From TrEMBL:
Transmembrane portions of the chain: 12-31, 43-61, 73-95, 101-120, 125-141, 161-180, 192-212, 224-243, 279-300
InterPro entries referenced in this protein's UniProt entry, alphabetically: EamA_dom, EmrE-like
One Pfam family of this chain: EamA
Protein name: Solute carrier family 35 member G1
Span of domain EamA: 12-142
Membrane topology annotation: Multi-pass membrane protein
Subcellular location: Membrane
PANTHER family per UniProt: ACYL-MALONYL CONDENSING ENZYME-RELATED, SOLUTE CARRIER FAMILY 35 MEMBER G1
Amino acid sequence: MRCETKQASLFRGLIFAMLAGAFSTFVSVIVKQIKNLHPGQLALYRFIAIFVMSMPGTAQTGQNPLGPPEFRFFLMVRGVFGGLAFFLNFIAFRYLSLGEASVIIFSSPVVVTIFARVFFKEPCSIFQSISVILTVVGIVFTTKFPTRFNEAPIAYSSEKIYGLLAAIFSLFCISAIQLITRKIRNVRQSIMTFNFGWVGLLEIALLTAVFGNFKWQLCGIQSIYILLLALFSFSGETIVVMALQCEYAGPVSTVRAAADISLAFVWQIVVFHDVPDSYGIIGATLVSVSIFLIGLGKWLTSLEGKIFSCGKFI
């Protein structure tokens, strides 16, 4: 009975991670569609939704909404990284194609796996070094850096550079969020989400006031987009916390990234009619192979440990 429970937890965590990736791509499409509002303002809507929708569940726990005293610092830091990550994330999706931004931002499994091994002593596979190299090379191709050595290199606009820098820094922030979530996984999911919401809300309001500007959204379909953005944001944040409470950070970030990158290219072609060039395809392929290797190694290692643990109860 205990073995079946552990195996169910494994697959439940990975299914949650896949759903979180799907919700993330829906949000990125909406951000790409709403061009008249600053990305920071759209990120603010995301955190308002997370904060408000998490309040009923937090109240039902009967616990201090700030969380257990020993985890409050980590909850605050997680919220700070979250606010910065999605401020930069939305900027990247505004100024880059969906595929380019997703390949860079969701290379996080490599970063997560390395630091999960260093800080949490999670199992690590022989695929790690190969995956790191493939990811770095994949990002280089995605940013079209090889064209700098051609006779007619591609010129980078200021917006393109802005988007690339935002995506790279967002990558590290998202990796930090996943690692902290794994560390404090025993905290109730609603309390995690509540603290993530109010800290990120305050941070993004300040960042948008300093680096952007606030405007009223247009009437009609844009209001529906904003409501969907809020709903998908809360759903995605809730589901990824549930995934990390069930499974190791490495496999969760791997499956989520795989779902996000693959769907991002689908939406890029179908919705925005933007066919990726050869550099984008090579970069996405290399990163996807890297993610697959990381996921395979982490999954086999964690599965082996759980089966061994199950054997003690048979």
